[in-house]
Amino acid sequence: MARAPEEALAVSSKAQYATDSGEHLTIWNQLAKCATQLDEPFRRSEIVGWFRRHYPATNEASLAAHIQAATANGGHATGQFASRQPLLVRVEHGVYRRYRREAD
User: Of the candidates 75, 74, 78, 104, which has an alpha carbon nearest to the alpha carbon of residue 90?
Assistant: First the structure.
């Protein structure tokens, strides 16, 4: 069975679409939204769970790459992420909090 055009777009690794509101959000923007909605500190599993509830078509490997690139102390962000301000700070293995420019 062929997918509807909207569903096919939601599977794209370049962009995800929030089907309930019609807003266009990249995985990076979705991750930023996620970080504001989770209670700190939060686990990687909570991020994944949030995405499964809100954006179930998001590729988990793409999400993992975005989490790594969005983490201030997670290593050097490269490529399309190199110039972006971090979203997360790792406080221990698998545990994060929101990045605060003035504190981090």
Answer: 74
Task: Name the β-bridge partners of 90.
Answer: 96
What's the token pair of residue 38?
Answer: 């989770």
Q: 74 Cβ partners below 8 Å, 6+ apart?
A: 67, 68, 88, 90
Locus of tokens 């995985």: 27
φ and ψ at 9, to 5 degrees?
-65, -35
Q: Is the pTM of this model over 0.90?
A: no
Could you tell me if 40 and 92 are in contact, meaning their C-beta atoms sit under 8 angstroms apart? no
Residue-level pLDDT, tens digit, the chain, 104 residues? 444 434 333 333 334 444 445 556 899 999 999 999 999 999 999 999 999 999 999 999 999 999 999 999 987 677 777 788 999 999 999 999 999 987 76
